[in-house]
Amino acid sequence: MCRTPPGYPQDNCDWISVTRDSFCLTEVGLAEAAAFRVSSAVLPVSVGGMVLLRPLAVLLVLVASELGVGGRARPRGRRQSCAPGGVPCARGPRPDGLSLPDLHCLPSFVNVSESQGPGTVLWSFSFNCSSHTPTLKLLQVQPPSTFFNPPSLARWQGLYVGQLTLSSSAQLDALAVNHYELQLQVTCGSDVTRGPLSVDVRRDPGHAQCTGRFVSPAGEVIQVPETVTPGARLYTLLPGLELQGAQVSITSAQDPPHFPGPFSINGQGWLQAPPQGLRGQAPKLFQLQVLVTFGRGRSCRGLLTVRVLPAPSPQVSFPERSLSVTVPEDLAPGSSVARAQARGSDVRYELLSPARGPLFSIGRADGVVRTSGPLDLARAGAELTTLQVRAFERLRPGASVQLDLTVNVTPVNRWPPRCLPALLLTQIPETRPVGTVLSTFTCEDPDSPGSPLTYQLRAHSAHGPASLRLSGLVLEVNASLDCDSPGACPQLTASLLVLDGGQPPMSTEVPVLVMVTPVNEFSPTCVPRTFRVREDAEPRTLLGSVVGTDADYPHGGIEYHAPGGPATFAVDRLSGEVRLLGPLDYEQQRLHRLTVLVTDHSQGLGPAQPRSSSCTMAIEVEDVNDHAPECEPPFQELTIHTSPGSGTEVTKLSCRVPQEPQRQAFSYSLVGGNSQGRFRLRGAALLHDDLLLGASLPEQPQTYELLIRVADAGPSTPHLSTTATVIVHLVPWRASTVATSTSRATVPSAMTPLLVTHTEPFWQPEPWFVVLLTVTGALLLALGWLLSRHLWGIQGTVGSSEGFIEAPRMETPEAPGSIMSLQHFDGRAQDSRTGGEFLFNSRSGAWRWL
After folding, report:
1. Is the CB of residue 474 less than 8 Å from the CB of residue 440?
2. Which end of the chain is more exposed for a tag (fewer CB within 10 A), N or C?
């Protein structure tokens, strides 16, 4: 870092101690340079009044920046200030590694000569930024200029060196701008420092340059009339040329007869007309090579072309100096536009501007302006053309006059508007919302591109006006679309009428066809129902129908399924009829639930998935009386003694329906064996009446075989019944008898009833065979009955029985008079043919009719 050696004032920057890792640049006099005391092995270098202190081991390239590009001296800045409040030219390293000068302590301005060219170094400095990559920017230049390059930044020996130079377009001119204000910014990590730099441009009397169009390769063209005054000023080459001490001369030859006299340039840079004037020289061109010489061997060359214009002749004239005509755009090439007619002798015509235009030409002898090509308004500038027509005498071309002819081209409506698409054919599903964009039209008028057009939407179907709308050039859906009723799925037909604004108006009609397609948007529905069926219903019995509805059209495409439902019921796939397939049992299950799945088909277009829903059907089983009552025990044998009085209870029946324990109402009636009317029933109780009117008490024991019919009395139909057998042995009353006693003999209840099963094969014959078989069977049945009457003692074969045969647990005597013989029978049954009941012995096979 730069520091002041011991023993010297702290504000004296002329004594600098430079270490190997930093350096300092300051401006001192040459006499003071000899008094420098150098420590740490430094080398003083004096360049143009500037002293650079560098380590002996290092040679800085900043010498080049001190010398400038090409060995020119660097522009001198102000001497660095070290007054209190300032800082040295370089600081020691900061914690972030930054060691850079504050820009307010750098030179505040730089003087530069206007003679300096591109690449000149205006300012350079160095700093240390070891922890980051620094940046150096030129933020702005006032007044704005491109004469300054962006600052360059290079790394050398661990330091960063920045330079500001003139750009390749730099042309400093103190007379134009003599002061520039530059704003610079140095960034090292998060440390940003900004500062101004003023550049003053000094006037250099020895610097001069040629400016103006005459030094360009094409030179300068000067038009002067032939009536110009001899020696008059025609042109000024360089303003202020007399201040620069330049010498100007015409180097090209000006020999007659082409030149009437020599042109001249005075000390002020004025081009003057020949002393002889220019009359009669129209329309000649005079080219002059000009040499401008400055001091010290500097010069520049230029070209001046003098065009002599003829003066108006009083003999040639137009009635009007300007003329305007209007022609249509569709004029064919060669058509007449206008006629320029001038007064004069043997007048000829030519177009001065444009001399050889692509649109118009003029007849040299008749002055008729004609079209030379199609007047296409699409070409830029074709709608208005100004022609300069020159009329002159054939023998005296200098005698001429000009006419300004303005041609206005009006558009002609030749083509109708063109639109894309030219035909709109599209389809949309019915579910598209209002505002859906169907298409965007692009229309243009070929006759006048960019001109406004008028659009109208015309509907050709009943649904069109409300269903479509035109928003600008966008065709949109205007109403909800519906295909869920017969004939409601519309085809929207319309047309877009496009009109232009030309004359005559022309139009284009774009056909529009929008096909609305149905969509399966609703799921079918069905109403849950309850079906009732008797438990004895036969298979294929119709229980009812499931009615499904679908809001989508067509409404009838519904199928019915009962997935995973009970096998007892079936649902027809198309009609939805629910039928019975198997037997029902009220006692086992009174309520069945059947879930029916309804699925729609043939709604909508495309591969849309069908929709489905389900509903539950309740099937209630109605009770049918299919179980007869059973009495426990089914067979009783009792012995009673007669006694005076009446209403003696013999026994009380205990009957029930095991399959239906809730059924408790029964009716009881004596249907057999009560021949003398000695017994009666009071509910389930069997009573014996001892004294009857006109009847005497029995003297001998008697046996009564009573048949009691037990039937259910509930609301269920049919009413089934069973017959209980009670054998009563009536013993006459004796005086020695103390009381009436009753003894019972019942069949043990532990005996298991017998189950007889009979299976019949089913065969369906022809109708005539059924009639014949019926008649034959009736005859055989009658014959068998007659034979059975004669063969009473022969055991008959018990006919087959269907269903369940009751097997009461009881004993029956062989003869009414034998009590003990009843124990030979242990069951009772009913003959399927005659309907008569009989007792049987399951072990021996003996039986007896009741």
Report:
1. yes
2. C
Look up residue 236 and give its two tokens. Answer: 């000024």
In which element (H, E) is residue 707 found?
A: strand 702-712
Strand ranges across the sheet with 743-746: 666-672, 702-712, 721-731, 635-641, 743-746
Provide the 8-state DSSP code for 11: T
Examine residue 718 and say whether the peptide bond preceding it is cis (omega within 30 degrees of 0).
Answer: yes
State the Rg of the chain over Cα: 69
Give the pair of three-digit tokens for residue 289: 């090579």
Distance CA 206, CA 243 (A): 11
How far apart CA 631 and CA 712 sit, in angstroms, is: 12
Q: What is the mean pLDDT of each run of 10 residues along the chain (850 residues)?
A: 38 34 33 31 33 31 33 37 34 42 56 86 83 88 91 86 88 81 89 89 71 76 89 80 71 87 86 90 89 76 88 75 88 89 87 81 91 77 83 81 89 87 90 90 86 89 78 89 75 90 87 88 89 90 91 81 86 92 87 91 66 91 81 86 71 84 82 84 83 59 88 74 87 56 45 42 67 87 83 48 36 38 62 74 74
d(CA 112, CA 145): 16
What is the pTM (predicted TM-score) of this model? 0.37
C-alpha pair distances (Å), 461 with each of 245, 470, 480: 93, 16, 16
| Residue 250 DSSP label | E
Three-state SS at 822: helix
- The type of residue at 233 is R
713 within 8 A of 629, measured Cβ to Cβ = no
What's the token pair of residue 292?
A: 């401008």
Token pair belonging to 769 = 């065979």
